[in-house]
């Protein structure tokens, strides 16, 4: 709703729709009523629009996009109504003015912002464009380069930058509403023509055509298969080529194309999934709504290798004092140098005027080899080698040294949290915090609770994720947790496809064309093939512990591919050794080139094992890799390891480079249709009966059998039917 009041000559309209004042139909209606009332009242000389609870508006209701009553047309009409008002209208922007919220402010004749406010047109991130004439007004106000940047990236800009761009007229540190009323009183009687953006020409550039063609190339490159940035570009270009009314018509056409695209649906789902995934529950009944986090005022990181150095950097950036510990002085010095380099780079990236990183102060960041230095920290994150015996030894030590309330976290990528916790006297305080590499960049934090982990420990880890500006997703304990467990069958299928006749570059191309930043073989080379090799040795799948006489391509009654082991046995660990599934220019090089050595290894391998190579088409590559991953996702849901498909999707988008405009693997399955996913898995498992990962999971079969229900209903079938699964 919008509330109407008077401040002598100024009518005050307050947008009210908690928590973020989205522009529901009712809000828009009340805003329109308020404007009419102000217009009709001769004692009102000006109007001020602000938002309730220190927030202007977060724009349209994302949950309402699929509703038949969605108010796009009325929002654009309302913005025009504001602009055409004969009395000056001033926007008082506190907190946020985003999307439709900013478009309302652009309809106003003046804008005053609080210094802490942020503004943006994030529609592009939802697969849309600012469809209430924002693509036509913004370039007229701040010029084409700045408008294009805001509209095609969706970034939120701080008030100070908005002032520099001319997006707002005034920035205040105190009461924004009072400042806006003051401005409204001051401008009463002044001509409004020059303040109406629709009447202004778009500011000229020396060579607009050249600028636009360069910008288009940049936008396309950044879009990575997403449609919205390109259409946003087209709408802004229309502003430079047409009168306002024609530009608005073009904007509407482009908006409708996006609105009906599957990408917009996927991106809106992804936005809501991220919020849904914050609401964690455990099968034991613990939940986000009742658990209280404990404060984390200091932390320690053990192990300053690939992961530890990124984790330290993240903590320092979040202003949490850190003790960084290594096994000896040599490792410590290497780790210290690496951490300092990362922090120097981060400090350089920080905005001018932002708080600086205080990492040269030993009270904020201390390096040590002495476990006693961990005595007083609130939380420890262990990131040593992936070795159960070593991890248990460290947790046993921590349990003796750390203060009673300290949270003990492990960054293991797959090991059993309960077994690690069993080495301590306080398993309720042991939890998995699985960061992704590089840990100071990747947004995902998989949070794994064990059998004894307390709700407080879970809530504290979730709170930590927020402090680190990461997305924390709470999941149960199983080998590989959610992300890596779903990744295993995906990578495994990719390797089976090589055995059967494909090549790494062919498989990678299909998955990169689908939208992954890198395909499974380039990813394995980047992560290091030795990591998986050590893990398989630990599981007794390869190495000296495999009983003599075991067939090369069989393990535990199922097909096994020793190809990755063969590569490791030849010293090919991926990028770090300059050779893996590809060859690189040097050890540590990044440019992957197909390797004739590998092609002849594959030919030789097929000969040895009597495999007749066949041509494998793109559809089979895509489906076998993706559907096996999705199939594992259904098994995870059925086992209660994750509370819903949204959790799996958020993990994949933020940790594994799944293209966001395809919504995550489970959402993707829902768009393909579960009966089709099931039929294809049946087909492939019949063709390759002993290949693991292709036998459809019981939960997938169930959902297909009950008629392919929408994704939001999946879990209800599980609770009703779990006893039969
Ligand atoms: C025919 C076409 C159909 C009509 C199309 C009309 C065209 C338009 O008019 C275009 C638009 O405006 S599209 C919307 C543009 N606005 C956005 O993208 C803002 C999205 N929100 C944010 O960035 C953060 O939530 C924000 C920065 C606002 C706050 O962040 P926080 O971290 O503080 O809090 P969150 O946990 O993210 O959010 C709090 C609760 O608010 C919900 N919410 C936020 N923005 C929403 C939005 N725009 N629509 C619906 N719900 C929204 C959010 O889901 C969360 O709710 P709960 O999960 O229930 O707690
Ligand atoms: N590398 C990756 O992409 C990811 C790794 N992980 C997990 O993170 C953990 C660490 O992995 P990386 O950083 O890749 O390993 P790494 O081999 O790069 O670093 C491990 C560090 O631990 C140190 N260390 C070993 N024993 C120690 C001890 N007793 N006390 C103190 N420090 C000790 C080593 O000196 C080394 O610097 C593993 O559990 C791994 O599975 C998790 C996510 C991703």
From TrEMBL:
Any single Pfam family the record assigns to this protein: ECH_1
CDD domains: crotonase-like (cd06558)
E.C. no: 1.1.1.35, 4.2.1.17, 5.3.3.8
Domain 3-hydroxyacyl-CoA dehydrogenase NAD binding: start-end pairs: 299-477
InterPro entries linked: 3-OHacyl-CoA_DH_CS, 3-OHacyl-CoA_DH_NAD-bd, 3HC_DH_C, 6-PGluconate_DH-like_C_sf, ClpP/crotonase-like_dom_sf, Enoyl-CoA_hyd/isom_CS, Enoyl-CoA_hydra/iso, NAD(P)-bd_dom_sf
Localization, UniProt: Peroxisome
All residue ranges annotated as the 3-hydroxyacyl-CoA dehydrogenase C-terminal domain in the record: 480-584
Keyword match Isomerase: yes
Catalytic activity, as annotated: (2E)-hexadecenedioyl-CoA + H2O = (3S)-hydroxyhexadecanedioyl-CoA; (3E)-hexenoyl-CoA = (2E)-hexenoyl-CoA; a 4-saturated-(3S)-3-hydroxyacyl-CoA = a (3E)-enoyl-CoA + H2O; (3S)-hydroxydecanoyl-CoA + NAD(+) = 3-oxodecanoyl-CoA + NADH + H(+)
UniProtKB keywords: Fatty acid metabolism, Isomerase, Lipid metabolism, Lyase, Multifunctional enzyme, NAD, Oxidoreductase, Peroxisome
Pathway given in the UniProt record: Lipid metabolism; fatty acid beta-oxidation
Record GO terms (molecular function): (3S)-3-hydroxyacyl-CoA dehydrogenase (NAD+) activity; delta(3)-delta(2)-enoyl-CoA isomerase activity; enoyl-CoA hydratase activity; NAD+ binding
GO terms, biological process: fatty acid beta-oxidation
Gene Ontology CC terms: peroxisome
Entry superkingdom: Eukaryota
Subunit relationships: Monomer.
Record-stated family: In the C-terminal section; belongs to the 3-hydroxyacyl-CoA dehydrogenase family. Belongs to the enoyl-CoA hydratase/isomerase family.
Protein name: Peroxisomal bifunctional enzyme
């Amino acid at each position: 709703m919008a509330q109407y009041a008077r401040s002598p000559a100024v009518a005050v309209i307050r947008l009210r729709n908690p928590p973020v004042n989205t522009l529901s139909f009712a809000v828009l209606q009340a805003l329109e009523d308020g404007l009419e009332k102000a217009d009709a009242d001769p004692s009102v000389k000006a109007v001020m629009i602000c938002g309730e609870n220190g927030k202007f508006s977060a724009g349209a209701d994302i949950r309402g996009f699929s509703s038949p009553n969605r108010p796009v047309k009325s929002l654009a009409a309302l913005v025009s109504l504001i602009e055409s008002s004969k009395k000056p209208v001033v926007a008082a922007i506190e907190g946020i003015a985003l999307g439709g919220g900013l478009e309302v402010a652009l309809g106003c004749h003046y804008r005053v912002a609080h210094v802490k406010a942020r503004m943006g047109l994030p529609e592009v991130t939802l697969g849309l464009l600012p469809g209430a004439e924002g693509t036509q007004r913004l370039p007229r106000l701040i010029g084409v380069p700045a408008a294009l940047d805001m509209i095609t990236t969706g970034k939120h800009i701080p008030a100070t930058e908005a002032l520099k761009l001319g997006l707002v007229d005034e920035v205040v540190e105190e009461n924004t509403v009072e400042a806006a009323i003051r401005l409204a009183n001051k401008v009463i009687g002044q001509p409004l023509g020059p303040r109406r953006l629709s009447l202004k020409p778009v500011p000229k550039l020396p060579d607009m055509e050249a600028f636009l063609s360069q910008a288009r190339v940049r936008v396309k490159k950044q879009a990575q298969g997403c449609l919205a940035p390109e259409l946003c570009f087209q709408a802004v270009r229309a502003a430079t080529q047409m009168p306002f009314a024609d530009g608005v018509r073009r904007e509407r056409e482009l908006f409708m194309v996006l609105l009906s695209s599957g990408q917009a649906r996927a991106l809106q789902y992804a936005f809501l999934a991220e919020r849904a995934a914050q609401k964690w529950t455990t099968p034991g009944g613990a939940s986000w709504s009742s658990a209280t986090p404990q404060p984390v005022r200091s932390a320690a990181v053990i192990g300053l290798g690939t992961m530890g150095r990124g984790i330290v950097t993240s903590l320092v950036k979040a202003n949490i004092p850190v003790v960084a510990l290594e096994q000896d002085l040599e490792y410590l010095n290497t780790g210290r140098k690496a951490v300092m380099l990362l922090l120097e780079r981060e400090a350089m990236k920080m905005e001018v005027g932002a708080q600086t990183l205080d990492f040269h102060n030993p009270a904020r960041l201390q390096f040590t080899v002495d476990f006693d230095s961990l005595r007083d920290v609130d939380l420890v994150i262990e990131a040593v080698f992936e070795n159960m015996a070593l991890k248990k030894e460290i947790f046993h030590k921590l349990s003796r040294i750390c203060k009673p309330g300290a949270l003990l976290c492990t960054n293991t990528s797959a090991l059993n949290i309960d077994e690690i916790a069993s080495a301590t006297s306080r398993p309720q305080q042991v939890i998995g915090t699985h960061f992704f590499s590089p840990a100071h960049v990747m947004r995902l934090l998989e949070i794994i609770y064990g059998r004894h982990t307390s709700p407080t420990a879970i809530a504290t880890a979730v709170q930590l994720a927020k402090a680190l500006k990461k997305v924390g997703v709470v999941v149960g304990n199983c080998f590989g947790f959610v992300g890596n467990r779903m990744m295993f069958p995906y990578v495994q299928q990719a390797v089976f496809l090589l055995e059967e006749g494909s090549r790494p570059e062919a498989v990678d191309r299909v998955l990169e064309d689908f939208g992954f930043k890198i395909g499974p073989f380039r990813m394995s080379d980047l992560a290091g093939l030795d990591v998986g090799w050590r893990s398989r040795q630990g599981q007794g799948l390869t190495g000296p512990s495999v009983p003599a006489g075991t067939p090369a391509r069989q393990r535990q009654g199922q097909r096994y591919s020793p190809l990755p082991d063969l590569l490791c046995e030849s010293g090919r660990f991926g990028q770090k050794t300059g050779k893996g599934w590809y060859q690189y220019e040097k050890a540590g090089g990044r440019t992957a080139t197909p390797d004739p050595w590998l092609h002849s290894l594959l030919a030789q391998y097929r000969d040895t094992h009597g495999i007749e190579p066949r041509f494998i088409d793109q559809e089979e590559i895509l489906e076998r890799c993706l559907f096996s991953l999705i199939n594992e996702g259904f098994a995870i849901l059925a086992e209660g390891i994750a509370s819903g498909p949204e959790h799996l999707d958020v993990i994949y988008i933020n940790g594994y480079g799944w293209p966001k405009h395809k919504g995550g693997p489970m959402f993707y399955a829902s768009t393909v249709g579960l009966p089709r996913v099931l039929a294809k898995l049946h087909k492939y498992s019949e063709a390759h009966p002993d290949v693991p990962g292709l036998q459809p999971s019981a939960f997938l079969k169930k959902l297909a059998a009950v008629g392919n229900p929408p994704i939001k209903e999946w879990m209800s079938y599980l609770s009703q039917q779990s006893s039969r699964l």
